Amino acid sequence: xxxxxxxxxxxxxxxxxATGAVVWTRNAAADTGAPTPGWGFTGxxxxxxxxxxxxxSGRLAAYDIATGEPKWxxxxxxxxxxxxHLVTIxxxxxxxxxxxxxxxxxxxxDGALLWQHGGAxxxxxxxxLANGDVLVAGGDMMGGTGIHRLAVSRGASxxxxxxxxxxxxxxxxxxxxxLHRDHVFGFDGSILASIALQDGERKWKGGRYGQGQxxxxxxxxxxxxxxxxxxxxxxxxxxxxxxxxxRFKAIEGxxxxxxxxxxxxxxxxxxxxxxxxxxxxxxx
Length: 284
Known about the structure:
This protein is an all-beta fold and 284 residues long. It has one helix at residues 28-32, and strands at 2-6, 11-16, 22-27, 46-48, 51-56, 59-64, 70-75, 85-89, 92-99, 102-106, 113-118, 128-130, 133-138, 146-155, 158-167, 178-180, 183-188, 191-196, 202-208, 213-217, 222-226, 231-236, 244-249, 260-262, 265-269, 274-278. The strands form seven sheets. Strands 4-5-6-7 form a four-stranded antiparallel sheet. Strands 8-9-10-11 form a four-stranded antiparallel sheet, with no helix packed on it. A four-stranded antiparallel sheet has the order 12-13-14-15, with no helix packed on it.
């Protein structure tokens, strides 16, 4: 019955979902000592058990979910704009945070560091799990380092991290990438691309959508893309070649916001306009 939000100045609010009333509030920037980054604090709070965890430019802060009482903080390597990300690796639940210095994993209960792996770039995009490995994107305005596939395991002497491959065939900046049928799809700069999950080899590149965002429609093997110019497009999520199925203007003006599907309704917006589209049922 609550909504947890993190604002651009580092304010973490717990709100009553029915009325919007503030239940408790904290300043994650002050609690962690994090300086405000150029684009402000971003990302989504993460609820894990009786904690809500927020990222403040490469730093983590955990609070009691009911009262907002601080429970722990953790400073990782470098700043960034990513959100804390809950995964289970080797049967162990852990929170990942991608930052400008790579990626860190901490224990949700107390913030203890489990493992780290160095990297470069401005971390905005969330990591992803792929057959037990971790995919991390290191992007920046100049292209960044691309995608890194990390093998993470736990042995008698602790956690180990090994890079399986590094691919510059896909270099997302602040656009999501998705996994589908042993391939990764996403933006290489402003152009859509696909790489193989096995070795990172690029399979195709095509279609200009600016700094767009996308969703995977897995049952249809389709990528739903909202371009930077407010166009909606459907592209095949297949490794053989780039195939655009449809494209039309949805809203006006620059659009960096993420599309959302709720039931059979597709919602798109930018800073000035919002539109809703009813999706077909899938029957002919």
